[in-house]
Amino acid sequence: MKNTPTALMYHDRTKHRPARYAASLGYMDWETQPNPFRRYENTPLISLTHSEITPPYHLLFEPEALPCAPLCLESLSQLLRYSLGLAAWKSQGGSRWALRCNASSGNLQPTECYVIAPAIEGISSKSTLTHYAPREHALELLHTYDDVLPDGSFTIALSSILWREAWKYGERSWRYCQLDAGHAYGAIKTASSILGWECEILSVETEEIARLCGLDQNERFDDSEHESPDMLLRIGIANKNSTLPQTPRLASSANLLSHAHHDWPVLEVIDHATHGLYPITTPLKTSRKSPPPSKSAGEIILKRRSAQAMDGSSITEAQFRQILDSSNFCAEASDVHFMMFVHRVEGLERGLYAFVRRTEDVDILKNEMDESFLWEACNDGLYLLRTGDYRGVSQMISCNQEIAKEGAFSFGMLTSFSCALESHGAIGYKNFYHQCGALGQMLYLEATSLGLSATGIGCFLDDEFHALLGLKNQRFQSLYHFTIGRAIVDMRITTESGY
Ligand SMILES: Cc1cc2nc3c(=O)[nH]c(=O)nc-3n(C[C@H](O)[C@H](O)[C@H](O)COP(=O)(O)O)c2cc1C
Fold first, then answer.
1. Ligand 1: distance of its center to the CA of 459 in Å?
2. Would the CB of 459 count as within 6 Å of ligand 1?
3. Are residues 315 and 206 in the same domain?
4. DSSP class per residue in 316-366
5. Contact 114, 125 (CB under 8 A)
6. Same structural domain, 248 and 340
7. Are residues 193 and 234 in the same domain?
8. How far away, in angstroms, is 307 Cα from ligand 1 center?
9. Are residues 340 and 191 in the same domain?
10. Are residues 87 and 222 in the same domain?
11. What is the pLDDT along the chain (499 residues), one digit of tens a residue?
């Protein structure tokens, strides 16, 4: 399959090992820190609106509960505001930084968003290609098309500025860009539900995404700051088969994000290898249960924050089960299972558990994993593998981060790695990160809705985790780790609203 050896090479080379982390500078080069906000020169800026009224969060998961909003300036504004918009400004000791609705590794925000929409009053009387500018909550008008695009649905393209993550994380950073793109997709999918809209990933060639947004027009970007196409989303209600317009050469150039760059040649290699036809997965058959009544969706989305420290308290089994069940909202992230260290969940024994999201995979996992595991069924896809205190182990596996130990539980997202590579080639590898990121964004929101907190963990010791599960080959690989519990809030950090 296409470029599979390159994906295997990159994956192995960028594993963190106890005695050798994946290659990076090893220090923060503040002189070259990239600007987190991409802007395009000489483009008209169209302000978006700020409607604060959103439905209760739990209704997002009740089919048909929310009316389908018309596509207009207000609804598009709400979609972007509650997916990729600023959620807060934080400040401490003279530094001030923005946080967004979508979580991002190191808050480096590599994901950019382009919107291809029909004529919308307040934007243009013609169909448009725009770029979302989150700091201004505005759209930059890149092009107006002569083609008339049909009403009712629109297209979003996501891309990654690999340099933004490479600046800090070196060779492992491509992985983080993909997880972040998955988080951005997850955030857009949730915000679409607020408006009663469907959000589907299209199976298109990545080259087509680049062409649509002019990302293949190299002269518009600094050599080290080009954008790599991630995925194309169709959002809305109708016209599922509408064709995409032709984008000519665009006049506007992207702003320069850093004055100098460090080169990590393997990033270009893996980026190149993972282009191709975006794979569409077979969704899970289960759908999520409706959660209990909760606050407004907007409040939960804006409140979602990564915990930097956890207080070591326990959570109830009902909360634990609700969080796991929420992952069914990401039915398209179907080949990902959670291998969990349960530290403090009332009613559950401490130990190592498997949450198998696709029932058919239980026997395959049993065959591949440590043969002494118990596989004691605990309902709804949860299995006890071994009892014991895994707090120290989970901290060690999470690059010694205490949040993994002090959360109520932590886990790794185990993917059917070699099967996806065999079926789809290297782009299947990229797709798995998107699946894991989308799951992560959902879990963050669900934890927030319950008054709990979460943190995505990109820094983990890959093969230490695999060895602990008894995995001996590449059939399954863990691509993203996560912890959920109660956060200790750092009172020294001041918070202001995003806008
Ligand atoms: C892919 C990914 C990996 C992350 N890895 C870590 C990690 O290893 N340790 C950590 O403390 N936070 C980690 N985070 C949390 C980010 O630092 C956090 O999302 C970012 O600072 C923005 O803050 P917010 O989530 O509160 O908006 C990760 C987040 C993502 C999306």
1. 10
2. yes
3. no
4. -HHHHHHHHHHGGG-TT--SEEEEEEE-SBTTS-SEEEEE-SSGGGHHHHH
5. no
6. no
7. yes
8. 9
9. no
10. yes
11. 799 999 999 999 999 999 999 999 999 999 999 999 999 999 999 999 998 899 999 999 998 899 999 999 999 999 999 999 999 999 999 999 999 999 999 999 999 999 999 999 999 999 999 999 999 999 999 999 998 888 889 999 999 999 999 999 999 999 999 999 999 999 999 999 999 999 999 999 999 999 999 999 999 999 999 999 999 999 987 556 667 898 999 999 999 999 999 999 999 999 999 999 999 999 998 889 889 999 999 999 999 999 999 999 999 999 999 999 999 999 999 999 999 999 999 999 999 999 999 999 999 999 999 999 999 999 999 999 999 999 999 999 999 999 999 999 999 999 999 999 999 999 999 999 999 999 999 999 999 999 999 999 999 999 999 999 999 999 999 999 999 999 998 889 999 999 9
Q: Which of 253, 268, 283 is the last residue of a domain?
A: 268
Quick check: CB of 176 below 6 Å from ligand 1? yes
CA 435/CA 443 separation, integer angstroms = 12
Same domain, 134 and 90: yes
Which residue's alpha carbon is nearest to atom 6 within ligand 1? Answer: 457
Cβ–ligand 1 contact at 105 (below 6 Å)? yes
Please tell me if the CB atom of residue 441 comes closer than 6 angstroms to any atom of ligand 1: no
Look up the pTM and report it.
Answer: 0.98
Say how many CA atoms lie within 13 Å of 316 toward its Cβ.
Answer: 5
- What is the domain range of residue 452? 297-485
User: DSSP H helical segments within 153-291, as ranges?
Assistant: 162-169, 173-194, 206-213, 265-273
Q: Do residues 485 and 452 lie in contact, with contact meaning Cβ atoms separated by under 8 Å?
A: yes
Asked if residue 297 has its Cβ within 6 Å of ligand 1, the reply is no
437 vs 449: CA distance, rounded Å: 19
Count of structural domains within the chain: 2
Whose Cα sits closest to atom 31 in ligand 1? Answer: 104
The answer to whether residue 1 sits within a structural domain is no
Residue 9 located in a structural domain: no
